[in-house]
Amino acid sequence: MAVKADDKATNKFDGLRLRAEEQLAKVGAQVPKAFAEDVEDLQRLIHELNVTQIELELQNEALRSAQLEIEASRARYAELYDFAPVGYLTLNRAGFIQEINLMACTMLGHERRSLRNRPFYRFIAPEHRVTFDKYLAAAFSTGARQTSELSLAGPRSSTWIAVDSQCGPAQDETGPVCRAIIVDITELRLAEAERARLMAAVDQAAEAIMVTDPQATILYANPAACAITGYRRAELTGRRTDVFKSLVHDAQAYENMWSTLQSGHSWSGRIINRKKDGPPYPAQMSIAPVKGSQSDIVSYVVVFRDVTDQIAMEATLRESQKLQAIGTLAGGIAHDFNNLLAAIIGFSEMAADDAEKGSRQERDLKHVLKAAIRGRDLVKQILAFSRKSESKKNLLRMSALIEESLKLLRATLPSTVAIHFNAVSQSGFVLGDSTQLQQVIVNLCTNAAHAMREKGGVIGVELSDFGFSVAGEAPVPGLAPGAYLKLTVEDTGEGIPPEYLGRIFEPFFTTKKQGEGSGLGLSVAHGIVESHGGAVAVVSESGRGSTFTLYLPKHVDAQEEKAPKKGKLATGHERVLFIDDEEALAEMGEQMLTVLGYQAVRKTSSREALALFRLDPSKFDLIITDQTMPEITGTQLAGEILALRPNMPIILCTGYSHQVDADSAKAAGICAFLEKPLTKSEMANMVRRVLDETR
């Protein structure tokens, strides 16, 4: 409107000027020269009017330009206001929305016309409305900008968005107002919550986790890393990973590792690190580079764990696998080896009986027989020690168990180590697992021998009675009053240093060099003794040997085993079918039975034996058969025979079999189960007993 008014004034001015010029021309023609000066003044006035007109036009043009600029600025402001990435609101004192931009409308999920003149608090979560009222009132009363975090109803039902809100006082044509800015921080809060969960998981992780910068400076370490390394987090942050270097690896090993990492690839392996207090430890480590947006390495994530126990368990597993291999090997050769021993024992015994009494031949044969029986007992011990079975406790005469264990042990000890056994309590019985207790005895004696491996020495083993009635007299804390068998294993070796004496029963603790022991022997022995209701005590002094004392509850109600009376061998006249696929053993069995008075028939084929029996099932009074035979095994043959004659007495013999034992043989209807090799007296007693019981 201002521009149009100026145009009218200019037009009127132009009209006046033209009329003035016309009148001036008329007057100039009529007036005398006396008035020439007045005419000049009038012309100057007209010139000034022209200049004024030009200036006025310039001012009008500037005014029009300014108005256009204002309108353009208003348009740009409106565009910026509506399309700003944050929400803008104008609120009155009551908190009603006076103006709102498009971003705020989008946040609230409504159109602009439906939001104007509506109370803003209706969109605020109930728990935040009091906070909003306070900070709006403070903005009007103090004139200072207020900041708060609010939860607003989102564009979708049942959803809330988190906003950062800032409110400051202002003035418009309606009076005092509050200009508010709201920024959607929902994604930020979700990311922070996710980061908090991630950090909690990392902090609780059993694996040690560290984050370093590209120069290997530690930025973060979780509690597991601190526990393993011995450093506090504050001590690690800002330090380089060089602090963990040990003297085990050379520089080239670390250079190879960093070469792999700096090329952008992950590295993993086992490395020896050093703790804060100095001792090295093996760590299984994995390091991965973290790349930025430009594919450059911005950090490294290091995950590691102390594998000391794992290495010990691996060593134990290897030892267990060795024992398993020994057991498998022993089982594999036991059958054939026992068959060989059976032939040696049987023929040597019969040859010795036929030899002239007191002759050199008789003495030599008895030496052969003695060695063969010792070999038989050794095989039995190896099989018993390597056989895996559940713990089964029986009444055991400890003196006999110790003697058997020492027989097995003597074959493995160097000749510089001697074993002296003294059984003060010959009739001492315990209720225990023979295999486990043998393991304890062998373990203690093996440790004693190891302590004397350089200079040799003596292992003293003594079994005696022990008892006490008052708890205060217990030789080991926690041992209940009662009667015990006291087993002492003493050596003249190096002894145990005082600083190690309290840890010798800890699992995986060992003072032996790597590869010489797993650290489980004494802990297992300690556990076995305690599982039998006993206790272990140890006394040792550096350079003066060690003494281990075992206390095992004595079974006082056990009866003394009666040794079989020596005398004439049990004989008979019954008919016996002897079956073994090895010709030598079949011949030996036939001869041995014949010498004992029986009518013996031998067969080396189980099929032939079955065919013979089928011809006349009543022809024989007893059948003795080997288990491991081609075509038909001993148990299968027994089944066929019992189908023809249910009450037929059968004795099953085997050198070694994992498929049959005394219980399974009895369940199959077999009268007796024997493990080869057998002496003539054992054969005679068993045959006579079976025949008498089944008569």
* Text of the CATH class of the largest domain: Alpha Beta
Question: On the 0-100 scale, what is the average pLDDT?
Answer: 81
Strand content: 15-25%
Shape field: elongated
Q: How many helix segments? A: 20
Structural class: alpha+beta
Which ranges are low-confidence, i.e. pLDDT below 50, for 5 or more consecutive residues? 1-5, 514-519, 560-564
Any idea what the radius of gyration is?
A: 54 Å
CATH-wise, what's the superfamily of the largest domain? Histidine kinase-like ATPase, C-terminal domain
Question: Total number of β-strand segments?
Answer: 22
**How many domains is the backbone divided into?**
5
For the termini, the CA-CA separation is 143 Å
Physical arrangement of strands within the biggest beta sheet: 2-1-5-4-3
Percent helix: 40-55%
CATH topology of the largest domain: Heat Shock Protein 90
Query: What's the architecture of the largest domain, going by CATH?
Result: 2-Layer Sandwich
Sheet having the most strands? 5 strands, antiparallel
Description:
- The chain is of the alpha+beta class.
- The protein folds into 5 domains: 2-80; 84-189, PAS domain (Beta-Lactamase, 2-Layer Sandwich), CATH 3.30.450; 205-306, PAS domain (Beta-Lactamase, 2-Layer Sandwich); 389-553, Heat Shock Protein 90 (2-Layer Sandwich), CATH 3.30.565.10; 575-694, Rossmann fold (3-Layer(aba) Sandwich).
- Helices cover 46% and strands 22% of the residues.
- The protein has 20 helices and 22 strands.
- Strands 2-1-5-4-3 form a 5-stranded antiparallel sheet, sandwiched between helices.
- Helix 13 (434-451) runs antiparallel to helix 15 (521-531).
- The longest helix has 48 residues, at 36-83.
- The chain is elongated.
- The termini are far apart.
- The model is unreliable at 1-5, 514-519 and 560-564 (pLDDT under 50).
